[in-house]
Design goal:
379 residues, alpha+beta, MutS, DNA mismatch repair protein, domain I, DNA polymerase, domain 1, Dna Ligase, domain 1, five-stranded mixed sheet, four-stranded antiparallel sheet, 13 helices, 12 strands, 37% helix, globular, disordered C terminus, binds magnesium ion
């Protein structure tokens, strides 16, 4: 049977919820994230609405940069940007209501994050019917929640996701099997999930700057350039993706991090923070009913924003808070001396994470837990 998959992604979700709930912010650029502290704040942007994106503000950007861009926006005649804290518990509530609506439209829904899902619409058989259904979903979402989503529809998850990412916000777009080649060639290399700055640079060195050029490379060539990732690339550039809709949400990693109000150099303070962050990670391990972890990762960001991660995989999985703390310390200690920090830089951020969990899959514990658990250290 031919598969029909839809990818639904809420538009600027956190900012859209704030705009809806606070009519006085309607029509303004909105940035949800860390406290900007008049431009001296140290965290990052979580979500920017489309008006704020026009100023060049985007998620994961330092909040101080966002503040500066907002300022420039005002000087150029734009509206003043509204900066708001992340109200995660409330967004989770709204997310639950959204997924109640989404689940009415397909018996198979995979929740990817707090505001993103794949729906299996193969039962509709016809692409036009699938499009009509998703139009109904978008209408219902707007009438009940006053929120918009973008939906991409295609023969697999990859194409559906690419379609939704290209037609934001409030879009609804179908890519049929016959249209895949043309659709993919219209994209930029960096639109493909997994192609980041590193791969892009690598590709540029071998004179590949477009999807068309990438497609001319054989699987063997790509494998020799990128190893296993080259094989994935070979498939992606052709729109091939057999991955199934997974009904239980697999938690692959848990991480917590902390951005300091001021750069820190004191070893005592830093080790204290590592201990504290490791404790928070362990609480999450418990609340997610993880049976054991094998890999411990720490992340450090220096005052100059260079970021390093270090991992240690244990010989067997453990469920011990003491071991988590001890391994985190061991990974961090080289950063306190010349081994990993010869220039004696100060620290801006620390993170601790665990992965490589015991047992293949975790039971889906909650539909919409904290969005911070999606990906190790994603923000
Ligand atoms: Mg979204």
């Amino acid at each position: 049977m031919v598969r029909i998959i839809a990818h639904l992604d809420m538009d600027a979700f956190f900012a859209a919820v704030e705009e809806r709930d606070n009519p006085r912010f309607a029509g303004f650029p909105i940035v949800v994230g860390a406290d900007p502290k008049e431009g001296n704040g140290r965290g990052v942007v979580s979500t920017a609405n489309y008006k704020a994106r026009k100023f060049g503000i985007h998620s994961a950007m330092p909040i101080s940069t966002a503040w500066r861009l907002a300022d420039i926006g005002v000087k150029k005649g734009g509206k003043k940007t509204v900066f708001l804290p992340v109200n995660g518990a409330w967004y989770s509530e709204v997310s639950k209501r959204i997924f109640t609506i989404v689940c009415k439209f397909s018996p198979k829904v995979e929740q990817v994050s707090i505001d993103e899902a794949y729906l299996d619409l193969s039962y509709l058989i016809d692409l036009n019917k699938a499009k009509e259904k998703m139009g109904q979903l978008k209408n219902e979402m707007y009438h009940q929640e006053r929120l918009t989503a973008t939906v991409g529809i295609g023969p697999n998850k990859l194409i559906a996701k690419l379609a939704s990412s290209q037609f934001k916000p409030d879009g609804l777009y179908v890519v049929s099997s016959q249209e895949i080649t043309q659709f993919l060639e219209s994209l930029h290399l960096e639109d493909i999930p997994g192609i980041g700055p590193k791969t892009l640079e690598h590709l540029r060195k071998v004179k590949i700057t477009s999807m068309y050029e990438l497609k001319q490379k054989s699987e063997t060539e790509l494998r020799s350039l990128f190893g296993k990732w080259g094989e994935d690339l070979y498939r992606k550039v052709r729109g091939i993706d057999d991955s199934e809709i997974t009904l239980e949400r697999e938690i692959k990693s848990i991480s917590e991090q902390e951005t300091f109000e001021e750069d820190v150099r004191s070893a005592t303070i830093l080790l204290g923070r590592i201990e504290e962050i490791a404790k928070r990670v362990f609480q999450r391990i418990k609340s997610e009913h993880i049976k054991g972890f094998k890999t411990v990762t720490i992340m450090v960001r220096f005052s100059d924003f260079t970021t390093k991660t270090r991992s240690q995989t244990l010989s067997q999985s453990t469920l011990s808070e003491k071991i988590l703390e001890k391994e985190s310390f061991k990974l961090f200690l080289p950063f306190l001396d010349a081994r990993q920090n010869p220039q004696k830089k100060a620290f801006r951020l620390l993170g601790v994470g665990v992965s490589n969990f015991k047992g293949e899959k975790q039971e889906e514990s909650q539909r919409s837990t904290s969005y911070t658990q999606i990906g190790l250290f994603s923000s």
